[in-house]
Amino acid sequence: MAGYVSGAGSAGAGPRVVAVANQKGGVGKTTTAINLGTALAAVGERVLVLDLDPQGNASTGLGIDIEQRFKTSFDVLTGSATILDTILKTAVPNLFVVPANSDLVGIDAVLSADQNKPFKLRDAITAMIGQQRTREPDTHFTYVLIDCPPSLNLLTLNSMSAADAVIVPVQCEFFALEGISQLKDSIEQIRATLNPRLEIQGVVLTMHDARLSLSREVAENVRAFFGSKVYETVIPRNTRIAEAPSHGKPILLYDYDCVGSQAYIRLASEIMERERRYKAA
Ligand code: ATP
Ligand code: MG
To answer: What is the pLDDT of residue 8?
Structure first.
């Protein structure tokens, strides 16, 4: 796929940078970053999952043991390593990860006096795009998916300053919409100040249980709030999805045929279709 002009501020072609964000915890951000990344890689995209959460769940879910995380997103944000220095391979061809660990907890203190602190990640991605220009085009990333922590903190701010677009996972449960207007306002604010390119790519309903009227009601409410931004594809609640991370595997490797895998494959094609329409507009 041809590159996009990046939210990371590159002048030329670069990857499409997408933040997976919702300050609410446990809604499926990491699961979406891992499995959407895998599904995109499976259709030939070259994908980098950038773990920006001190919990390091995306790294663990992609099979990266804590001892393997020699350099992490903390080093990228503090400028002691480039993104290309920190990248690790995963078991999925075309899918790579910048791992994270608990060092990220201290990032606010480390960057406290840094005037440029909201733009650390954007600048690192821009530098990566520059470094990649000198390499073969088939080594260039076409997508960077950033797994955000459950907070509207400096890490999420960095992620949104670097991103072209945000994907918001929303869990189909009672408090689903709690805090969602705050998230929408934050995205608007960042667009108005730090990153005029930022847009909501889409909202994905996760952990949907078709047997429950609550799931159906929440899905309706989210569609009423976000309108056409909500993807048609709904990710079902599926125990195979929950099991996969403990095996260090994306669901597509763990159980390709299960409903969870198939849903993430559909989500990837819907997202790519949306990107094509957006590009053509
Ligand atoms: P945090 O805010 O802590 O980073 P998160 O938003 O990244 O959480 P996940 O870690 O992706 O959320 O998911 C929360 C939990 O729900 C995990 O145990 C995960 O395995 C499980 N889970 C996610 N999606 C599904 C699903 N579709 N079906 C069943 N379980 C799921
Ligand atoms: Mg997470």
So the answer is: 53
Residue-range domains of the chain with CATH? 16-280 (3.40.50.300)
User: For 55-79, what is the mean pLDDT?
Assistant: 97
Ligand 1 first shell, C-beta below 6 A: 25-31, 53, 55, 57, 150, 206-207, 235, 237-238, 241-242, 245, 260
Q: Is the confidence at residue 20, as pLDDT, over 80?
A: yes
Q: Which of 20, 31, 36 to mutate to test the pocket of ligand 1 (most atoms within 8 A of CB)?
A: 31
Instruction: Give 110 Cα–ligand 1 centroid separation in angstroms.
Output: 29
Confidence of residue 277 (pLDDT cuts 50, 70, 90): confident
Position 120 pLDDT exceeds 50: yes
List the shell of residues around ion ligand 2, using CB closer than 5 Å: 29-30, 57
The atom number, within ligand 1, closest to the CA of 149 reads 4
- DSSP labels for the chain? ---EE-TT--SSEEPEEEEE--SSTTSSHHHHHHHHHHHHHHTT--EEEEE--TT-HHHHHTT--GGG-SS-HHHHHHTSS-HHHH-EE-SSTTEEEE---GGGGGHHHHTTT-TTGGGHHHHHHHHHHHHHHTS-GGGS-SEEEEE--SSSSHHHHHHHHH-SEEEEEEESSTTTTTTHHHHHHHHHHHHHHT-TT-EEEEEEEEEE-TT-HHHHHHHHHHHHHHGGGEEEEEEEP-HHHHHGGGGT--HHHH-TTSHHHHHHHHHHHHHHHHHHHHHH-
